[in-house]
Design a protein that fits this description.
Blueprint: H1 3-9, E1 14-25, E2 28-40, H2 43-51, E3 57-61, E4 68-70
Antiparallel strand pairs: 1-2, 1-3, 2-4
Length: about 80
Amino acid sequence: MTWKEVRKSYPNQFIKFEIIESHIEDNKEIVDEVAVIKAIADDKEAMREFINRKEGQFVYSTKNESVVIELIKHVGIRRSV
């Protein structure tokens, strides 16, 4: 489903989903299509789902018009001997 379809089907709820299709723009991943795993009824349950989610799963509110994930570049610190 596209995020627009998800928002229409599940207004003002949290959704647990996996990304099916996305693209990168300026160090941000813009999600185009998702696979809905679960609609979440309340904030407490959403927090539990967020904490217990598996890798590749996301919990996000349909109040947001789009799903944008900031990509973080890990910078290592080198130590000279």
